[in-house]
Amino acid sequence: MITLGLETATSACAVGLSGPFGVEVRVVNTERRHGEFLMPSVAALLARHHVGARDVERVVVDRGPGLFTGLRVGVASALAYAQAAGASLVSVTSLEMLAHGAHARGVRGDLVAVVDARRHEVFAQTFSLGDDVAALDEAEVLVPGELVERWRGCRVRFSGDGAHRYAALLAPVGEIDEETVPPLEAALALAPSREVLESLAPLYLRDADAVANFTTRGSSR
After folding, report:
1. Are 161 and 202 members of one domain?
2. Which of 3, 36, 107, 193 could form a disulfide with 102 if both were Cys (CB 3.0 to 4.6 A apart)?
3. Is residue 221 part of a domain?
């Protein structure tokens, strides 16, 4: 099966492809320019492997949580591409990708996937990495200090761009994993076992920055 992967949940934009030729993933931009880079990078990746647009049989997209605009670009592009190509559509979360990516690298034990949510907050979820990957709680929005208090005195690893942004706070509590971008290799590996979707909405967990800013201005009048 030829599978196309799209990642736009963080400031990075990444595309990936798997099939009989193997797996290739490219991080094509790290400056939140998803709309500019995503689809041209898909076209270039397909051409590199001599894959036609309609040869893609499955599309897997990171549905979040993550940055509002990036998620909209990624999910809308995945829906449109799958429909145009006649491909099946599946999804994973950014936090799952971080956990499964770490597991594939041999990491074991408790891991907290941490995606930068801006506004001095993070999206976080805890996983147990053993023979398999098991979620221990639900994804939630937290301030970094809450993670510090929750994991003080425990053995844990933090992964993701949120872990790196707040490394000064988190490093005294647990190890900081090398991963920053949710790895599309993990999404491509999970894609064959995921339920095929007819529609898909991004996993936001909170209002967009524009909504929050409007609410804040309105309450201060």
Report:
1. no
2. 107
3. no
State whether 136 and 192 are in the same domain: no
Is 210's pLDDT higher than 90? Answer: no
What is the pLDDT, as a whole number, of residue 208? Answer: 59
**CATH number of the CATH domain containing 77:** 3.30.420.40
Helical spans, DSSP H, in the chain:
34-48, 68-85, 94-104, 144-151, 161-165, 167-170, 184-190, 209-219
Q: CA triplet 83, 89, 90: central angle to 5 degrees?
A: 165
Shared-domain flag, residues 186 and 77: yes
pLDDT at residue 213 tops 80: no
47 lies in a domain? yes
For the record, the structure tokens of 112 come out as 């907290």
The answer to whether 29 and 84 are in contact (CB under 8 A) is no
Residue 22 has, within 13 A of its CA and on its CB side, a CA count of 4
Q: Helices (H), strands (E): how many in the chain?
A: 8, 11
**Rama region for 148: left / alpha / beta (φ>0; ψ in -120 to 50; rest):** alpha
Residue 36 domain flag: yes
What value does the mean pLDDT take over residues 172-199? 96
Q: How many residues does the chain have?
A: 221
Say whether both 10 and 60 belong to one domain: yes
**Whole-angstrom distance, CA of residue 160 vs CA of residue 123:** 10
Q: Show the CA angle centred on residue 189, arms to residues 16 and 109, nearest 5°.
A: 120
Domain that holds residue 70: 3-94+182-210
Q: What's the one-letter identity of residue 47? A: A
Q: Please give the backbone phi and psi of residue 170, each rounded to the nearest 5 degrees, phi first.
A: -85, -30
Q: Which two tokens stand for residue 208?
A: 């967009």
